[in-house]
Amino acid sequence: MRIGIEVNGVLRNTIGKIEQTYQKFYIDKTEGVDDEEPFEYKINLPVTSLELKNHFEFQSDEELFSFLYEEFAMEIFGHSQSTEYSSFNDLQEIYVKYRDENELMIVSDEIGKSKPATLFFLSKFGCQLEKVKFYSNLTINSMWNEIDVLLTSNPALLLEYPTNKIVIKYETEYNKDIESEHTITTIKELDDKLKELLQC
Length: 200
Hints:
alpha/beta
């Protein structure tokens, strides 16, 4: 079985780092700036979707894109914390247990500078999986072609995926209302879920 494990929301607390970086560089830096009518940067919490412009105020879509993938790509995607304290230790145990009979790979929806930043993030936490697959909205089919099972927190992937694939939901604030046949709340739970799926 070919098993894909998503980075954002599953291994990396990307939303938490976006919030922290936005607060530091947009809100804290603009407080007290004496413009006639300054743009008000603000965060709308909790973050209940991946539509970031609904939660983080930007002057344009271009400014949001620049924030994520140009100006602060390494800060956000490279220096994020893992979702759990033991995420990568638990992932390593699962990898060692299943690698002989199955193919485990990292998959991640990345653009531009977030790709090298994500590789830095994975190396920082000592990720030992051999294969990393980056995809975008344009190349998502190539990702599906390489896996049978996907562990993801992304609502779009939980709601729409090929009928011959299995999707496991990693539960977060922004996907908790989405029903899924397979759900886990920690990486450690992936072990039992894979045992169950491999017996089917």
